[in-house]
Amino acid sequence: MRRWLYSEMEQKVLKDLDLEDEDFIQPEELLGYINEGIDVCEALIHTLYEDYFLTSSTITLVSGTASYALPSDIYANKIRALSFDNGSSRYSIRKIKEQDRFAKIAEINANPGSADYRYLPTNPTAGPRITLVPPARESGAYVTVWYLRQSATLSLATDQCDIPEFASFVIQFAKVQCLVKEGNPSALKAQELLEKYRELMIITLSTMIPDGDNTVEMDTSHYEEMS
Known about the structure:
By secondary structure, the chain is α+β, with helices and mostly antiparallel strands. It has 2 domains: 6-50 and 152-209, no CATH class; 51-149, no CATH class. The protein contains 6 helices and 8 strands. Strands 1-8-3-4 form a 4-stranded antiparallel β-sheet, with no helix packed on it. The chain has a 4-stranded mixed β-sheet with strand order 2-7-6-5. It is elongated, with a radius of gyration of 23 Å. The two termini are 44 Å apart. The model is unreliable at 212-227 (pLDDT under 50).
């Protein structure tokens, strides 16, 4: 799948609209339109098939430390799973349940023993974090966090669009914005094409089920939080 550079997307818009020798649309405006299109596309992806953005990262534990920053590109603090593996012990790190969670945290921290780690997501002004319960007993890159990332914002000519399947939607979105600003009557026709791209996106995302399994999983998180 082709990964478009921002410079290529920019030239595609300008060439198709015959704006290469015009200065009515400023470079920073077009960059804004492209990134706005990516944001619209990203929101639709997260609505229909958010695991498109599933990725992982490693958290390095520091003995005695409880609070750890989550990856900077995490989307809406959406953690899929945390796992612990120090070579001799492997398990999933479960989230502290909602019911009496602060009492549970105090109890575990007071009597940590050798219990498996649990975690609590937090969102201070400095950025999303997790609190490990109890605090780390060892130091090392032992925790893997599976999470949903944000789509990359473009700023440089060499930046790549990281939603290559839907780059056509993003480019068409930018074209529509340019035509609307110009007051060009072709804007309506361009908008109709944009809607066709949106419909194609919806069809594509709706069938993006791993391994050909199209059974929808029941969301039991609410019940787990109450247990």
